[in-house]
Amino acid sequence: MRSLGIDYGDSRVGLAISDELNITAQGIETVHHNGNDKIVLKRIEELLNMYEISTFVVGMPINMDGTSGERVEITKKFIHKLKCKFNNIKIETVDERLTTVQAHKTMNFLNIDSSKKKNIVDTISAVYILETYMNKQSH
User: Fold this and answer.
1) Mean pLDDT across the stretch 40-63?
2) Helix or strand run (H / E) with residue 24
């Protein structure tokens, strides 16, 4: 069974998936939804039809000082929608602080063209979210 990493944002959602053994994570795509969660939920449903996914791993946007802000509440509302629509899938959350920074460092290291960064930063962040979860599971 696989895990699906989700980097939830206001207008874009990065998605990443594990292999069947939950050892590696690879980015799938960034879904542009402009605030319409139905678009995201439909895409996740399509992925569930393609892969055997047992767990959603959602990045929790905790502030750098460890407090919860408005983004955490918005993400919790999205998680509630996931629970309602996919009630047989386990949902885990991961502190996503610095995943976007890591993603930008990775893109800079790979010399990704700046015009393409906006479209893949969320996907790379979802990979880091999923890897964080998988690393915790293996220890």
Assistant:
1) 94
2) none
